Structures are given as structure tokens and as C-alpha cells.
Amino acid sequence: MSNLTTIATIGSHEGQTITLRGWLYNLRASGKLLFPIFRDGSGTIQGIVPKAAVPEEVFETLKSLTLESSVIVTGKVRADSRAPSGYEIDVENVEVIQRVADETPFPIQLKEAGVDFLMEHRHLWIRTPRQSAILRVRATIMRAAAEYFDTNGFTRTDPPILTPAACEGTSELFEMDYFDEKAYLTQSGQLYIESTALALGKVYSFGPTFRAEKSKTRRHLTEFWMIEPEVAFCELPELMELAENFISHIVQTVLKHHQADLKVIGRDVTKLETIQAPFPKISYDEAHQMLEDAFEKGLIENRHTYGDDFGSPDETYISNQYDRPVMVHRYPAAVKAFYMQPDAEDPTKALCVDVLAPEGYGEIIGGSQRVDSYNLLRQRILDHNLPLEAFEWYLDLRRYGSVPHSGFGMGIERAVAWICGLDHVRETIPFARTLNRIYP
Prior knowledge:
Oligomer: single chain
Pfam family, one: tRNA-synt_2
CATH class of the largest domain: Alpha Beta
Radius of gyration: 26 Å
Shape: elongated
Structural class: alpha+beta
Subunit structure: Homodimer.
CATH topology of the largest domain: BirA Bifunctional Protein, domain 2
EC number: 6.1.1.22
CATH architecture of the largest domain: 2-Layer Sandwich
Number of helices: 13
Subcellular location: Cytoplasm
Catalytic activity: tRNA(Asn) + L-asparagine + ATP = L-asparaginyl-tRNA(Asn) + AMP + diphosphate + H(+)
Helix content: 25-40%
């Protein structure tokens, strides 16, 4: 395997004979020339096969080869500025591992197919260059997210997937039998990582979360991945600084390592190059006034009601006023979760922040300073009609050495959609789970 390489690193082998293992993505012929395109999971590359330059058996094998047949290809790497990757391979030999039968051709052809068909064949659709590129970017976003916290003194901690109660007291829960009790798939690891933050100082969790939202919007999945940091002795201003530096790190890491993939996806990278901290910061009141002014000028169709949360059209308008994420802070406490600390200067407001991505991608981060008073938290639980007994352990965190602490959550899929410039979150995860889809 010493001379085995990948398409992603093929530029370092110019002029050398290398071996690739992968699949035939596409093939076109022009007289006595074949132009196969191979993929290996790291990218695609075009091969050149003149009939006179290879044994007849190799030429005929390639000429009749079906798409997605698995192969081992040997050839010499040659620079070519016309090629998408800047390189081509002069094919010398092809060994077929498994040939796709003529009777059952690969169903995902190069021509456009409907969304339902593609999702029904998602296990095959992810082989196409654009979908593979999205998944590679996703992997780097996840790696960069963990890297940021690991290098800044955070300890990763793993909250449970099965929980006895809702984190935010909503009804959007997947309920299941747990022996003689009821359990729920987690909506967030937040309550649990609050406890580990008070043990370890700075922590984060990274895992799947579940919300039984009967929503068909382009922003919603029923199963998605969330990264959630939590920091002891941290108040809202420090949390906002953490969030903007975190997002900047992720975007710049993707730009550094995935220019080719972003080109395949069709992303305008100039819209990502501006994503550097600090981000603009506005209060809920300022955001509401922005919407009020826009409505008066006829720029938006519906008037926002003061005191309500922002809907998707509201978030889109607000974020479109900026070339980078905007941080909206201090929402009305009445529309936020029970665990958010009220603002001492105006107790009707919560010390919280939502980070809205530009280009209409909406909220990608939601966070807050947490209530640190036992009496206040207990009252908030009762005010939200939540079962007090289910939160006794959570109240313990305020009985024994409570401190100001803060955290946020970022949904990976929304971040991927924004960074890749995708129309729908269904393409951001290998196998999307939505209101109407649990197959394959």
C-alpha cells in the first residue's frame, strides 16, 4: 500500500505512478479516447485513456464499465489547469472489484431527480460529489467545534440520551417505556452538563438530540446533533464572546480546508470570508424596533408583536441587515425557558442570546446565563407547571455552592446548512429524520 494515494492528496504525486481505489462516477467516450471520472470518497478525478496507450483489454473493460462499479486504478498523475482539481490521471491499468450489473444500473443518474426519489435512495445519493462534499464539510465542522473547546480548556462530558423529564418543559418529546416508568429521548443535555460544569469548571457535550416537532420547514429535523458548552463563573457578556469566537473558528477552519468542496457545493465563499469576531450585537428591543420600522416602510408583510418571540421571517429580515451573524440578546423572559437568569436591570428580560446566521438561515446558537438562585429556580419551575419532583436533583445544584454559570447550544445541521449555503437541512446529515421520513 506504499504507493496507494487518495484523490484529495493527488497533487503531491505529480509525475508519479499511483494507485487509486474507488468507484467509476462517470464515463464519456470520444472516438478512441475514454474519459472516466473516478471517485474515492475524498474527491473526484478525471482519467485519460487513449486506446493506443493501454492494452486492448483495459480499454474495452473501461469502455463497457457501468457506473459505480468498484475499481482499482493505476496511472500517472499529470497537471492540467483545465481539470476541476488541476490534475488528471493517465490510466495505465484498471482492475474491476465488482461490476454493477447492466440489468440493475445505479439509480442516481447525473440527470436531475425529484427530492422524494433522492431521499428514498439517500444511501446512494450520498455518493454523488455534492453530497459527499457536504458530508466532508460537516465532519470538519464537528471536528473544529470539538477542537475549539478541547484547546481552550474544556472537558467533554456525555449527558444521557434517555431522560425522565423535558429540559425546557415542552410537549415536543419522544416518549418511550422504560421498564415500569416513562422516559424521553433527550431534547438537550443542558441540565446535565450544568452539573458537570459545577464539577469541572468548563465542559461541553456533543451528541444527538430529539424533538417531536410536527414541522415541515427547511430548518427542522426530528433528530439532530448538538454541541453544548457550559461554563461556571460565566455571565452573559463572556458567553457572547465565547459564542462569536467559536463560530469564527469553525468558519475559518472550513475555509482553510475545504475550498474545493465548497466549489463543488456551489457556495459563494466571499460570504464566509467576512465571518470574523466580533459580531454585531443588538437587544431584543432594538431588533423589534428594526422590524417595526421595516413594516412601516412596507419592507416586510407582517407586523411583529412586541413581547413575542421572532418567527422565521423576522429572523431572516434582521439577519439580512448584516454580513455576519448578529447576536440578539435579552429577550422577554416570558417567551424563554424557565432556567434563564432574569436581567437585574429589567427582570422582565432574560439574560439570553440567540445568534442569527446571515442569508436567512436563522438561529444557529441559543444560549443564556442560568438561574443560580435556589428560591428563584424553584419558583420558575412551579410557574411553568413543571413537576417539581423531577427537578429536585437540578435544584441541588443551587443548594450546594451555586455560582453564576452560562452555556449555549449549536445545532450542527443548521450550521452546516448555513456554511454550505443549502436550501434545506435534509442534506446536512447522512440520513435525515423528518416528520414524514424515517427510511432508509
